[in-house]
């Protein structure tokens, strides 16, 4: 079975991901909600759906890293407060 040009990875739409790293949590989450809505509605061609999925994955990863960072900061503050109360 031969692979034609339409099914090769190079044929898929290029997805812009370079801007995701500079997004705030709120920006990434808002766009992610839009991407999910578009995917849930359906009707987009396969190529566009794959591009949306890839962007959605990058946005979800960005949100998760923001939340992980916030959780780490909270744990750091809690630990410092515990140490202060133990010292008293």
TrEMBL record:
Q: Which reaction does it catalyse?
A: Exonucleolytic cleavage in either 5'- to 3'- or 3'- to 5'-direction to yield nucleoside 5'-phosphates
Which EC class, in a word? Answer: hydrolase
Name a GO CC annotation attached to this entry. Answer: cytosol
| Top-level taxon | Bacteria
Keywords in alphabetical order:
Cytoplasm, Exonuclease, Hydrolase, Nuclease
Q: Cite a single GO BP annotation.
A: DNA catabolic process
Residues passing through the membrane, by range: none
What EC number(s) does this enzyme carry?
3.1.11.6
Subcellular location(s): the record lists: Cytoplasm
Single GO MF annotation: exodeoxyribonuclease VII activity
Main location group: cytoplasm
Q: Which InterPro entries does the UniProt record give?
A: Exonuc_VII_S (IPR003761), Exonuc_VII_ssu_sf (IPR037004)
**Pfam families recorded for this chain?**
Exonuc_VII_S
Q: Which family does it belong to?
A: Belongs to the XseB family.
Q: How does it assemble?
A: Heterooligomer composed of large and small subunits.
What NCBIfam families does the record tag this protein with? Answer: PRK00977.1-3 (NF002139), xseB (TIGR01280)
User: Which PANTHER family does the protein's record reference?
Assistant: EXODEOXYRIBONUCLEASE 7 SMALL SUBUNIT
Function according to Swiss-Prot or TrEMBL: Bidirectionally degrades single-stranded DNA into large acid-insoluble oligonucleotides, which are then degraded further into small acid-soluble oligonucleotides.
Name assigned to this protein: Exodeoxyribonuclease 7 small subunit
Record the organism: Candidatus Nesterenkonia stercoripullorum
Gene name, Swiss-Prot/TrEMBL: xseB
């Amino acid at each position: 079975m031969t692979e034609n040009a339409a099914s090769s990875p190079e044929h898929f739409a290029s997805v812009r991901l370079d801007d995701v790293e500079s997004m705030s949590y709120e920006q990434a989450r808002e766009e992610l909600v839009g991407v999910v809505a578009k995917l849930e509605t359906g009707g987009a061609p396969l190529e566009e759906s794959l591009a949306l999925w890839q962007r959605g994955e990058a946005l979800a990863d960005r949100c998760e890293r923001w939340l992980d960072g916030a959780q780490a900061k909270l744990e750091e503050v809690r630990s410092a407060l515990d140490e202060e109360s133990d010292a008293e």
